[in-house]
């Protein structure tokens, strides 16, 4: 760049010297030498107009301006009978850019990077820009650990004053982190400290995660993690003295050395509160997670400050400021903290602004808000509002901000920004599962019809085992208080003849029902339903005697009047990507007198999510059920519980567990027990993708009941394995690979199981 500017200045100087002639009035202006540039473009930059008097000073200024455009590599001014002649020599244009040898990146992405550096087709060629683009291209490779990359650039002249540029890339091998050393650690082992790093030496999955490739940004994050590790364990004076990153001469191996000074471990000696106590001091003290005599932890200190700030925020003090001031006693290795509380002004919410909802009506979002306009600001109500809007499941993202109103000191706005996702679909497609085989389906569904929050679903779903035809309607706000109302029309056909593990029978059920739900509080709701259904039974060959007795007693066609009552509690932090909280559901169904069937079934389902870390979530799931008949009747065999398969105990065939007949076919039972424990985590390399999740699991469960003639096959079964859940563009996909742990001879195993194209 310096050479370029020097040449330009010398040219301007020489031109101004060569112009040493008498000033004259410009009668006309003519441009010569242009091929691509329009004459009007030159005139727009030229600071001389017809009628101006051109002297040496103006001539030098004109030449300088035209050079500065970057369009020309030579500019001269001549005169002829009062006509100013501008003679230019254009810089060549870039006709094409070729990249040869690039494998690590897509060529289009590399060209986009070159464009940002100023090098692109149809632009003016400039040598300094080319050098800058070369360096940019090299930096792209270095960011991927390709420190040995070599880039050779060839410039080829073409006709019409154009050039072609070719980048020859020799990528070389990716440099790997061979060793990370931590020097100065005494309290903790190096292996323990390195476990906090995202950077690591080559391992089993680093070829995919790229964690063995050096990155300055990742190292900075790891150093902060190391600092937090020590500060959370009492080492207040911990410091990182230096960091060295070296690479071998062949550009293949990287060595990282971190020098640290631990300092002594500090314990908390005293906790004080000072400032304006608008909340009782005892209540504020209960929010402080540090206690005298305990080892200091920055994490607990930060949490304490946040809890006090949030508590003040619940009373309207949105801008409360809480500072924890430490007083160190280095001799005793103790630290005392004084929490200075400044609540500031009490504020209220002026307006709630909703953006991003092009389809969903404002009222659908506003009725979920627990923070109201004109009321005092409340941190807990704002957080609760975000959770409720999130649970609508109409959006892929929900963000709430509370900016101060300009020009005021006691007002804020609540800005709700949502990102909508498709909530309706007209779909005709196919799916496959190794339980159902080929599934042909068609549906017209809208979870948010006309943006009102109401749900309509017309579905046709066919498979070898289950066929469903249904129409459902739900109004989640039938009343302003949140009472839910809806109805269902359905036809369900069950054919077990293709399931070798289940007794052979077919049922054809046609029914209708109405339902209503009542919210009890923010997390709890009760749903009730009443219906009527007709079931036609067709027994297959070798049916168990109890099934034959049932048909002889009630006939092939039965009328049932089912009534249902359920209680549900939803305490999840998010319906989009759950990391903490619980869901509970108690479901009861009974056949009322007046129908052919009098029975009852009760089921309890619990899911508990616990965040082990930022990436890993523990899920514990329990499901128990019991059923029986009353008024002198038994539980209908087609109302039995079943277990086994992708939704209960993986590794065992669908509905294959529990009592069995002489042909080793599952009969089902009146008692069901299922439990699962899973560790869920993102797909490596896809940490921010909320459509795919991996898990490692242990399953256990079975069903109990009478009628089985193979008691050695009964009892709990366990399995362990891994699973992947993906909300794909083609539909939900759930795949699991499980190893049965205590399987017995005769068990129907199925280690690989998946579902695709239907809900699960």
From TrEMBL:
<dbReference type="InterPro" id="IPR010827">
    <property type="entry name" value="BamA/TamA_POTRA"/>
</dbReference>
<comment type="subunit">
    <text>Part of the Bam complex.</text>
</comment>
<keyword id="KW-0677">Repeat</keyword>
<dbReference type="GO" id="GO:0009279">
    <property type="term" value="C:cell outer membrane"/>
</dbReference>
<dbReference type="InterPro" id="IPR000184">
    <property type="entry name" value="Bac_surfAg_D15"/>
</dbReference>
<keyword id="KW-0812">Transmembrane</keyword>
<dbReference type="Pfam" id="PF01103">
    <property type="entry name" value="Omp85"/>
</dbReference>
<dbReference type="InterPro" id="IPR039910">
    <property type="entry name" value="D15-like"/>
</dbReference>
<comment type="function">
    <text>Part of the outer membrane protein assembly complex, which is involved in assembly and insertion of beta-barrel proteins into the outer membrane.</text>
</comment>
<comment type="similarity">
    <text>Belongs to the BamA family.</text>
</comment>
<feature type="domain" description="POTRA">
    <location>
        <begin position="266"/>
        <end position="344"/>
    </location>
</feature>
<keyword id="KW-0998">Cell outer membrane</keyword>
<feature type="domain" description="POTRA">
    <location>
        <begin position="175"/>
        <end position="263"/>
    </location>
</feature>
<keyword id="KW-0732">Signal</keyword>
<feature type="domain" description="POTRA">
    <location>
        <begin position="347"/>
        <end position="421"/>
    </location>
</feature>
<feature type="domain" description="POTRA">
    <location>
        <begin position="24"/>
        <end position="91"/>
    </location>
</feature>
<dbReference type="GO" id="GO:0043165">
    <property type="term" value="P:Gram-negative-bacterium-type cell outer membrane assembly"/>
</dbReference>
<feature type="domain" description="POTRA">
    <location>
        <begin position="92"/>
        <end position="172"/>
    </location>
</feature>
<dbReference type="Pfam" id="PF07244">
    <property type="entry name" value="POTRA"/>
</dbReference>
<feature type="signal peptide">
    <location>
        <begin position="1"/>
        <end position="20"/>
    </location>
</feature>
<keyword id="KW-1134">Transmembrane beta strand</keyword>
<dbReference type="InterPro" id="IPR034746">
    <property type="entry name" value="POTRA"/>
</dbReference>
<protein>
    <recommendedName>
        <fullName>Outer membrane protein assembly factor BamA</fullName>
    </recommendedName>
</protein>
<dbReference type="InterPro" id="IPR023707">
    <property type="entry name" value="OM_assembly_BamA"/>
</dbReference>
<dbReference type="GO" id="GO:0051205">
    <property type="term" value="P:protein insertion into membrane"/>
</dbReference>
<keyword id="KW-0472">Membrane</keyword>
């Amino acid at each position: 760049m310096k050479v370029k500017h020097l040449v330009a200045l010398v040219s301007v100087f020489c031109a101004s010297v060569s112009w040493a002639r008498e000033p004259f009035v410009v009668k006309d202006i003519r441009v010569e030498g242009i091929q691509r540039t329009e004459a009007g473009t030159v005139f727009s930059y030229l600071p001389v107009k017809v009628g101006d008097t051109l002297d040496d000073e103006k001539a030098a200024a004109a030449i300088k301006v035209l050079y500065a455009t970057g369009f020309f590599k030579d500019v001269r001014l001549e005169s002829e009978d009062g006509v100013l002649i501008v003679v230019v020599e254009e810089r060549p244009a870039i006709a094409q850019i070729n990249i040869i040898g690039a494998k690590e990146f897509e060529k289009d992405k590399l060209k986009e990077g070159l464009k940002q550096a100023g090098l692109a087709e149809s632009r003016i060629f400039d040598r300094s820009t080319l050098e800058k683009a070369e360096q940019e291209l090299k930096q792209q490779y270095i960011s991927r650990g390709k420190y040995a990359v070599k880039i050779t650039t060839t410039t080829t002249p073409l006709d019409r004053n154009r050039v072609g540029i070719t980048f020859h890339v020799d990528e070389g091998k990716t440099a790997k982190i061979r060793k990370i050393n931590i020097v100065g650690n005494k309290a903790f082992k190096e292996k323990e400290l390195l476990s906090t790093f995202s950077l690591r030496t080559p391992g089993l999955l680093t070829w995919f995660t790229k964690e063995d490739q050096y990155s300055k940004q990742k190292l900075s994050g790891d150093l902060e993690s190391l600092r937090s590790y020590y500060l959370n364990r009492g080492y207040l004076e911990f410091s990182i003295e230096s960091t060295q990153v070296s690479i071998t001469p062949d550009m293949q191996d990287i060595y990282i050395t971190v020098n640290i000074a631990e300092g002594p471990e500090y314990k908390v000696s005293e906790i004080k509160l000072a400032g304006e106590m608008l909340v009782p001091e005892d209540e504020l003290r209960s929010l402080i997670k540090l206690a005298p005599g305990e080892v200091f932890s920055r994490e607990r200190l930060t949490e304490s400050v946040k809890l006090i700030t949030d508590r003040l925020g619940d009373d309207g003090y949105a801008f409360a400021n809480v500072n924890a001031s430490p007083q160190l006693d280095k001799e005793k290795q103790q630290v005392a903290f004084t929490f200075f509380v400044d609540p500031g002004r009490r504020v209220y919410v002026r307006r709630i602004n909703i953006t991003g909802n092009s389809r969903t009506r404002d009222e659908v979002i506003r009725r979920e808000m627990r923070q109201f306009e004109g009321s005092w600001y409340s941190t807990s109500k704002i957080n609760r509002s975000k959770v409720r809007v999130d649970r609508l499941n109409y959006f892929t993202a929900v963000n709430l901000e509370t900016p101060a109103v300009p020009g005021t000191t006691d007002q804020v706005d609540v800005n709700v920004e949502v990102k909508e996702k498709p909530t309706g679909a007209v779909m005709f497609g196919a799916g496959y599962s190794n339980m159902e085989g080929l599934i042909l389906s068609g549906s017209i569904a809208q979870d948010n019809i006309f943006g009102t929050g109401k749900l309509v679903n017309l579905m046709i779903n066919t498979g070898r085992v289950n066929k469903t035809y249904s129409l459902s309607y739900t109004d989640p706000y039938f009343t302003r208080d949140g009472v839910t109302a809806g109805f269902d029309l359905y036809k369900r056909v069950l054919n077990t003849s293709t399931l070798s593990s289940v007794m052979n029978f077919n049922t054809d059920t046609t029914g209708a029902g109405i339902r209503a739900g009542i919210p009890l509080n923010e997390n709890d709701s009760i749903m009730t339903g009443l219906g009527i259904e007709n079931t036609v039974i067709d027994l297959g060959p070798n049916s168990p005697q109890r099934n034959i007795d049932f048909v002889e007693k009630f006939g092939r066609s039965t009328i049932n009047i089912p009534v249902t009552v359920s209680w549900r509690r939803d305490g999840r932090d998010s319906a989009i990507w759950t990391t903490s909280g619980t869901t509970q559901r108690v479901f009861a169904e009974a056949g009322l007198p007046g129908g052919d069937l009098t029975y009852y079934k009760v089921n309890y389902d619990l899911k508990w999510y616990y965040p082990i870390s930022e990436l890993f979530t523990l899920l514990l799931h329990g499901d128990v059920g019991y059923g029986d008949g009353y008024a002198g009747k038994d539980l209908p065999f087609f109302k039995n519980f079943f277990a086994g398969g992708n939704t209960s105990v993986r590794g065992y065939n669908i509905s294959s567990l529990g009592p069995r007949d002489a042909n080793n076919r599952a009969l089902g039972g009146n008692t069901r027990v299922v439990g699962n424990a899973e560790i869920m985590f993102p797909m490596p390399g896809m940490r921010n993708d909320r459509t795919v999740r991996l898990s490692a699991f242990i399953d256990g469960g079975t069903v109990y009941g009478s009628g089985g003639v193979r008691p050695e096959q009964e009892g709990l079964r366990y399995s362990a394995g891994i699973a992947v859940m993906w909300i794909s563009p083609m539909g939900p996909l759930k795949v699991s690979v499980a190893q049965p742990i205590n399987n017995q001879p005769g068990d129907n195993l199925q280690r690989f199981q998946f579902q695709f194209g239907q809900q699960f």
